[in-house]
Amino acid sequence: VRIDATATPAEGELSVDYYKKSCPNLQNVVQQTVTDKQIKTSSTGAGVLRLIFHDCFATGCDASILISSNSFNKAERDADINLSLPGDAFDVVVRAKMALETECPGIVSCADILALAARDLIIMLGGPYFNVQLGRKDSLSSHASDVVGKIPMPTMSIEELITLFKNKGFTAQEMVALTGAHTVGFSHCKEFADRVFSNESDPSLNPRMKLGLRKACHDYKNRTTVAAFNDIMTPNKFDNLYYQNLPRGLGLLSSDVALLTHPQTRPFVLLYAANQTAFFRDFVLAMEKLSLVDVKKGNRGEVRRRCDEFNELNTSN
Ligand code: HEM
Ligand SMILES: [Ca+2]
Ligand SMILES: [Ca+2]
Fold it and tell me: What's the EC number here (predicted)?
């Protein structure tokens, strides 16, 4: 038990006050950077939310996803499933890190910056506030091969998805709450093309939406950057419309649709569709949990000077 509330937290202990003495202006600096970036580039928020999810599910919340590849090593961010993560999501973390290296050099980990940036962006999009525990260390390695099988894909069955989340300590309900993140952002055509170009009648896909997506994606194999909103109703607002869309045939990914179909997840979709307060409450709890998955403490990690490079280059990273 810490009696002196102003004492520096013990090494290895996470706390909302972790940088209170060493970098008192941290939260303001991150918030300022994130606000400027999101106003200029509105796709940043959704990108960062997906970025932290992919970081935490592969090797824990340790900023391993921010490392650049080099001639010795193909890093996580170059794993196939991560190639669609937008550059602006990486950029906002780099910018916050640069500002912090002026403010308090060598103090704040990139993993903590990512967690704070995600929180601030969720609020900017209209979502709920939550506290972020701090004191994560940055990873000492990053390999594209570590990502394989850790990140969910829309082609997976609900059973496979439930198992994947369970392996990281999340219940089916927490999975449904977290996937409410699809209330913002985009998916590229190849992620939902099989639904849209199927000639079989599909009661889970509104015919007008199907037609619209066919048009938008008609040349998707050549125009690989074409994407559609995950939440067609309020694509830039963090709300519960994602869940409301599903019973109306307005879900985009087959995994989104499956959440409504399957008896183990359906009750939670219906709950969150009817009750945004319940969604926000459960999303906050699940996000706090997500941001603590396999956190590295003490000498299991380092505080990077640059978020895209280890402090010491070596051939075994
Ligand atoms: C059920 C499991 C999930 C599956 C199968 C899944 C799959 C996907 C796919 C295929 C995309 C489109 C990527 C692209 O084409 O660029 C996407 C986007 C996105 N995902 Fe998920 N996801 C899942 C859960 C989650 C969770 C738990 C979060 C965060 C907490 C999340 C956050 C996002 C966000 C914010 C986007 C939009 C990214 C952007 O606009 O740049 N997803 N997801
Ligand atoms: Ca990681
Ligand atoms: Ca929305």
Answer: 1.11.1.7
293 Cβ below 6 A of ligand 1: no
CATH number for the domain spanning 77: value is 1.10.520.10
DSSP string, 108-136: S-HHHHHHHHHHHHHHHTT-------B-P
- Closest ligand relative to 230 C-alpha: 1
Instruction: Please give the backbone phi and psi of residue 260, each rounded to the nearest 5 degrees, phi first.
Output: -80, -35
Q: Is the dihedral of CA 173, 175, 181, 183 positive or negative?
A: negative
Token reading at 45 = 């928020």
Q: How many domains does the chain have?
A: 2
How is residue 60 written in tokens? Answer: 């824990």
CA distance 116 to 11: 20
Query: What 3-state DSSP class applies to 197?
Result: coil
Residue 218 lies inside a defined structural domain of this protein: yes
Q: Which atom of ligand 1 is nearest to the CA of 186?
A: 40
Residue nearest ligand 1's atom 14 by CA: 187
Ligand 1: centre distance to CA 1 (Å): 39
CATH number of the CATH domain containing 245? 1.10.420.10
Quote the ligand 1 centre to 60 CA distance (angstroms). Answer: 17
Q: Are 175 and 141 members of one domain?
A: no
- Structure confidence by residue, pLDDT tens digits, 65-116: 999 999 999 999 999 999 999 999 999 999 999 999 999 999 999 999 999 9
262 is catalytic: no
The residue range of the domain holding 184 is: 170-289
Q: What does the mean pLDDT of the chain come to? A: 95
Judge whether 146 lies within some domain.
yes
Q: Would you give the DSSP letter of residue 34?
A: H
Does the predicted interface ipTM exceed a cut of 0.90?
A: yes
- Which residue out of 54, 143, 188, 218 is catalytically annotated? 54
Calpha distance 304→108 (Å, rounded): 8
